């Protein structure tokens, strides 16, 4: 009984650090957030922090890795669908990640080059999976701009900002889907 309570308390502290990290990193950038800032927001001691994470960058990895793992798996599954369905599935993957990992997604555009090296491999794997879907869509003449690589650039620069813009709108998810569809899919 006591062990269960201690385990739940430790999990709450770890979750509090993950949430504080995602929130602070996304709002202020990774480089400007100190371990002390994280300790203050999560209301934990330095020893508690280092009991869970070896560094601020390790905390960043723990926040972002599940997002990349889930995104990669979902996009790789799309690659087995017909090209049009796979292309439309891309915005559904982004929406699902937004619903489950909003703070972490907002953090991705804020990552500086020093922090980027900590998840560069996962980022490339996600881009490769997306590119595979987009290449199939290109071959099927489904892309508005006709280029898989250009479409990947469009996604990389617009998807997360659009999710943020539409977040507070009652029809935000439908608006996001429409916007991504308009950016990626040809009118045919």
Q: Based on CA inertia axes, which overall geometry fits?
A: elongated
| Beta-strand percentage range | under 5%
Number of strands: 0
Give the helices and strands as they follow along the chain.
HHHHHHHHH
What is the average of the pLDDT values?
92
Poorly predicted runs: none
SS content category? mainly alpha
Radius of gyration: 19 Å
State the end-to-end CA separation: 62 Å
Sheet of most strands: none
Tally of separate helices: 9
Helix content: over 70%
Q: Any chance you could write out the topology, listing elements then pairs?
A:
Layout: H1 2-28, H2 35-42, H3 46-52, H4 56-78, H5 83-107, H6 113-116, H7 120-139, H8 148-166, H9 172-184
Helix pairs in contact: 1-2, 1-4, 1-5, 4-5, 4-7, 5-7, 5-8, 5-9, 7-8, 8-9
Structural description of this entry:
By secondary structure, the protein is mostly helical. Helix content is 78%, strand content 0%. The protein contains nine helices and no strands. The longest helix is centred in the first third of the chain and has 27 residues, at 2-28. The model has no long low-confidence stretch (mean pLDDT 92).
Short description:
With 188 residues, this protein is mostly helical. It has helices at 2-28, 35-42, 46-52, 56-78, 83-107, 113-116, 120-139, 148-166, 172-184.
Spell out the key features of this protein.
188 residues, mainly alpha, 9 helices, elongated
